[in-house]
Design brief:
This protein has 479 residues and is an alpha+beta fold. It is built from eleven helices and 14 strands.
């Protein structure tokens, strides 16, 4: 009886334990398992797999599908003639003809990149172009035309930038020239500096255009090679550079002006113009002479116009029997009465030497070279001095053709004294009549005594000027 009661009690206790375990599992274990099953595990960053190079649409592509797909692509391009695609166990055979070698290579690469293709046998041929095939030329022209059309906006912007740079360079050059003009800088230097500043500004605009066009390397090459290019050009054009620099220095020093009578390198003439290469003179004979500026700069320059007063001299010879003092006074009176001879500085009549038959007198007088021609003045004074000396009874023997016998020459006469002998008698000196000399200051043959500068200038204006296209650096308006 007791055992039966104990057995029943234990049976009830076990049933209650199993019920408690079931409830615990339902409340706690089942939600935990569900959460664990639904959660996705997060791998570490180092364990992440690499992305595949090609995503397979289907695990396996059949040969027929490969053939169909490649055939459709090749036909759609229109680059091939009768293309054929044959696939056998993943090996693709390409036959037919391609229009170019590039298209053949492209077809081989296309087949290699196709899914499940193990190898490609590219048996495509290349169509031989005809002998007179103009298609490449047409294609190139079409591409060039398209390139020009695409570059039109860039060209428009470039022209706008260049035009703006040109305007700015002109403005800067004008301001620089005006500034230097107020400072009293020489015309040539003013022109050179102003143009140099303008060129620098324009080159800056050109550099911007190169930057816009994407030609940065070309722009840097041009800028970097400017110095070297200048050295090379300086060596190649040494004479031109030397003449140009000489023209700059001559403009700064200003040894002469337009119309000055100068003598350079044994050339006497009136200055007409000076260019960057040479100085042009018109000689008294009416000829244009071009002297390189380098020669002018290094030569001795005689400027007969910078000081208008010019001294003229000449020599006459009088006989030994004549009075030197009388001859000097006679010549001095002629010089004082001449209207074109200056009294200050004073004129001189000096004994220069004793010749074999004459006493030589050197005459010095001054005249205004800006008003009177020294050639005409010399002719006029010599003529008047000769007339005055002859009127004063002063002889002017010639050393080469005349010999003087002060005691006369003994002459044997065939009929003479009572004893039949000849008697020596002194020969009479034959007095030659003096020719008539005009006492006018100038004769018609000499013309007026005015300077011939105006006449030469008139001749220069009617003649063709050498280097007529070059500017005159001596003219402020042209410089």
């Amino acid at each position: 009886m007791l055992s039966s009661l104990l057995q029943g009690h234990m049976t009830k206790t076990l049933h209650r334990s199993w019920l408690a375990c079931f409830l615990f599992a339902v409340c706690f274990l089942f939600p935990a398992l569900a959460t664990a099953q639904n959660a996705t595990p997060t791998p570490a960053a180092d364990d992440a797999p690499a992305a595949p190079s090609r995503v397979e649409v289907q695990p396996t592509a059949r040969d027929e599908e490969i053939e169909t797909r490649l055939q459709e692509i090749l036909m759609a391009t229109g680059w091939f003639v009768e293309p054929e695609v044959d696939a056998q166990d993943g090996v693709v055979f390409l036959t037919g003809e391609a229009q170019t070698q590039e298209f053949k290579t492209w077809a081989g690469n296309l087949a290699s990149n196709t899914q499940d293709v193990a190898a490609v046998v590219n048996q495509l041929g290349v169509v031989e172009p005809p002998l007179l095939d103009l298609q490449p030329a047409v294609t190139e022209l079409r591409e060039q035309g398209q390139s020009v059309l695409r570059s039109i906006p860039l060209l428009g912007i470039s022209f706008v930038v260049l035009f703006f740079a040109w305007l700015v360079s002109r403005l800067v050059s004008s301001r620089a020239r005006r500034y230097l003009d107020h400072r009293g800088v020489n015309a040539l230097l003013r022109n050179v500096v102003a143009r140099g500043v303008g060129i620098v500004v324009f080159l800056a605009g050109l550099y911007v255009v190169f930057q816009i066009a994407g030609w940065t390397n070309i722009a840097l090459t041009i800028v970097g090679g400017t110095g070297l290019l200048g050295i090379v050009l300086g060596i190649a054009f040494r004479d031109i550079t030397e003449n140009f620099l000489a023209s700059v220095f001559l403009s700064v020093q200003n040894p002469f002006n337009i119309g000055d009578l100068v003598e350079v390198n044994d050339v006497l003439g009136f200055v007409q113009r000076m260019t960057t290469r040479s100085t042009i003179l018109m000689t008294l004979a009416g000829n244009h002479v071009q002297i390189p500026n380098a020669t002018v700069y290094k030569s001795i320059i005689h400027n007969y116009t910078s000081n208008p007063n010019r001294r003229i001299d000449f020599t006459i010879g009088i006989g030994y029997d004549d009075s030197v003092s009388l001859a000097q006074e006679t010549i001095r009176e002629v010089l004082e009465e001449h209207p074109a001879v200056l009294n200050d500085p004073e004129h001189l009549v000096l004994v220069d030497g004793l010749g074999s038959a004459t006493v030589n007198l050197q005459i010095y007088f001054w005249t205004d070279g800006s008003k009177y021609s020294w050639l005409k003045m010399k002719s006029s004074v010599i003529r008047l001095v000769k007339r005055a000396v002859q009127d004063a009874g002063i002889s002017m023997p010639d050393e080469a053709r005349e010999m003087i016998f002060p005691q006369g020459v003994p002459v044997e006469m065939p009929s003479g004294g009572s004893d039949g002998r000849s008697v020596a008698q002194p020969a009479r000196q034959r007095q030659l009549p003096h020719p008539h000399e005009s006492d006018d200051v100038s004769t018609s043959a000499e013309g007026d005594l005015r300077s011939e500068a105006e006449e030469i200038e008139t001749q220069a204006n009617h003649s063709r000027m050498p280097e007529s296209g070059a500017g005159n650096l001596l003219d402020e308006k042209e410089a």
